[in-house]
Amino acid sequence: MTFTKEIKIAKYLCLFPGLFLIISGILILLLPNLASVLFDINDIDKLQEPISLAMGIRQLAIGLMITVLALTNQIKALAYIMLIGAIVPIADFFIFSSLIGWSSALRHAAPLPMIIGLGIYLRNKIRQTS
Fold it and tell me: Does residue 25 belong to any structural domain of this protein?
């Protein structure tokens, strides 16, 4: 498969959500006080519960998947991971909206257009170049 300039740019744009997920996962796991401020969660004990630790591991794992796929030029898999991974910010928005309010929960849904857009763009480019 030949890599056009557009595919390379989209691939590197995928690193933004990948690296963000890695950093947020590490924050949840290692620095829950900082994570509570960033995620607007008033009760710090909530971030130290097992479910929050599982959330941190989820963030870290998905971020690593995106980053590794982007850096190893596995564009088709990256496109599908971006599209399937869009489920996470949608679910987070609805879950957190009841806890922190709709306006604060919007930060969870904010990357959704970028994630879906990159997934669709990469998938379409892969079809055109094959």
Answer: yes
Task: Indicate the pTM of the whole model.
Answer: 0.84
pLDDT digits (tens, 9 = 90+) for 48-103: 677 778 888 999 999 999 999 999 999 999 999 999 999 988 988 888 788 778 88
> Amino acid identity, residue 27?
L
The answer on pLDDT for 32 being more than 60 is yes
In a domain, residue 98? The reply is yes
Q: Is residue 93 part of a domain?
A: yes
Instruction: Specify if 130 maps to a domain.
Output: no
What domain count does the chain have? Answer: 1
The single residue listed with the structure tokens 């969870």 is 108
- Mean pLDDT of the chain, nearest integer: 87
Q: Which segments of 31-111 does DSSP mark as H helices, in order?
A: 32-38, 50-71, 75-85, 87-100, 102-109
Range of the domain at 77: 5-125
Q: Determine the Cα angle at 113 with ends 107 and 118, to 5°.
A: 125
